[in-house]
Design a protein that fits this description.
The complex is a heterodimer of chains A (195) and B (206). With 195 residues, chain A is an alpha+beta fold. Helices cover 28% and strands 23% of the residues of chain A. The two termini of chain A are 34 Å apart. The two termini of chain B are 44 Å apart. Classes of the chains: A alpha+beta (195), B alpha/beta (206).
Chain lengths: 195, 206
């Protein structure tokens, strides 16, 4: 338990934060598709390819139903923000019901939420936030793994942990590069499996 | 029109045709005239993403070009557009000569399966139906309306917001207030929540 509020602790904490910010800054920002609709298409194609590859139990019609259409809103500086989500929020994820969730062939349950923004003039798409959650219902030693990108200007940003991975612990966060949403989905469909 | 009354999106339709097997299978997709070419390419692109090399898309400008393009194609899925100029006589000729549209067993690369997709407007599909009854019978019920993009219904939006409220144990007003005064906890779901509320303006840039 960390209970030191000494000058040494604060100095060390600042040094850690600087290192983590350095890590995020030197990680390349992923190239994104030209618009949110294209991200939506690529996410759906990725799920369909996983289904054809035998990596998903959830069927074609359920995938189409669970992957919600792009929702649009105003963003800052006259831009537009877009949200794409699939599957329920975390509290429902514990039951591998392939009608309600994306269920992998090994019963792991996937859900995600992606928010992007685009300034006027068809400028490049920017990642605002994402969550990719893979839950392992049952007796797995690691109950879930989660890739998060928190919205900007929030608490984690200054700790260098805006992009992070939860390795099965709500409070535990590992530093992460900012991921392309399609790459994150591909990874969670293919990997993190019990041998 | 197929029994599924809701328009499909391109990736859904692409999955449908990639999963289809059989010889001389015909589909019609109905789209707005200004979107026919782009939708044709999008279907081919999506189908090729699902099954590399499975699809080709071509513009046809005459019945002969149509017959040759389909007949000679070695891709499993042939997608065509450009039928808007075909008149009654031309569709009738295509119907009479429809055997020229069939591909030989084994002609397509990799698998014994040949699928043709005609990208049409409602008007050109009407012309096909009235002038080419036998081709219409080949197509049968495999007629799909494609929508360029879907929107989240107000019901589905409310269902999702209710999920987010349960997850965050907060009201919409509390989320907006928290985003405004900077007290909102840091979590990706709040970004989606604000967009669903139409308050994405409270999000900073990435």
């Amino acid at each position: 338990v960390i209970c030191l509020a000494t000058a040494e602790y604060e100095e060390f904490e600042a040094s850690c934060t600087e290192s983590l910010l350095g890590l995020q800054n030197r990680s390349a920002v992923p190239n994104l598709p030209v618009n949110a609709k294209e991200i939506w298409k690529q996410l759906q194609l990725t799920l369909q390819r996983a289904l054809r590859a035998g990596l998903l139990k959830t069927g074609h019609y359920e995938i189409s139903r669970l992957l919600r259409p792009v929702t649009e809103s105003a963003w800052h500086a006259g831009g537009r923000a877009y949200a794409i989500s699939c599957g329920p929020t975390d509290d429902k994820l514990k039951v591998p019901n392939s009608r309600e969730c994306l269920v992998r062939d090994d019963e792991a349950v996937l859900s995600f939420s992606v928010t992007v923004g685009q300034l006027p003039g068809n400028s490049i798409l920017e990642l605002v936030a994402y969550r990719f959650d893979l839950a392992f219902p049952g007796a797995n030693r690691v109950p879930f793994v989660r890739f998060d990108l928190d919205p900007p200007n929030e608490g984690h940003t200054n700790e260098g942990l805006r992009a992070h991975i939860h390795p099965g612990m709500e409070e535990g966060r590992l530093p992460s590069p900012i991921l392309n949403p399609v790459e994150a989905l591909q990874f969670l469909l293919m990997h993190l499996r019990e041998r | 029109m197929n029994s599924a009354s809701e328009p499909e999106q391109v990736p859904q339709f692409a999955f449908r045709i990639v999963e289809t097997s059989g010889e001389n299978v015909w589909y019609v997709v109905i789209v707005k005239p200004e979107l026919m070419e782009s939708i044709g390419w999008e279907i081919a692109s999506a189908a090729n993403a699902l099954q590399p090399g499975s699809s080709v898309v071509e513009r046809v400008d005459s019945p002969i070009a149509f017959e040759r393009a389909v007949h000679d194609s070695t891709c499993r899925i042939w997608i065509g557009f450009g039928f808007e100029q075909f008149d009654h006589e031309e569709w009738s000729k295509i119907d009479r000569d429809r055997s020229r549209l069939e591909r030989l067993p084994g002609q397509t690369i990799g698998v014994d399966s040949s699928i043709a997709v005609l990208v049409l407007s409602k008007e050109s599909f009407g012309a096909l139906q009235s002038s080419a009854p036998d081709l219409t019978s080949w197509i049968g019920g495999s007629v799909f309306e494609l929508a360029p993009e879907a929107a989240l219904s107000s019901t589905d939006r409310e269902v999702r917001l209710a999920e987010l409220r349960r997850w965050g144990n907060m009201t919409d007003d509390e989320v907006v207030r928290g985003a405004t005064d900077g007290s909102l906890p840091s979590d990706p779901y709040f970004a989606e929540w604000l967009v669903l509320l139409g308050r994405g303006d409270l999000l900073g840039n990435g």
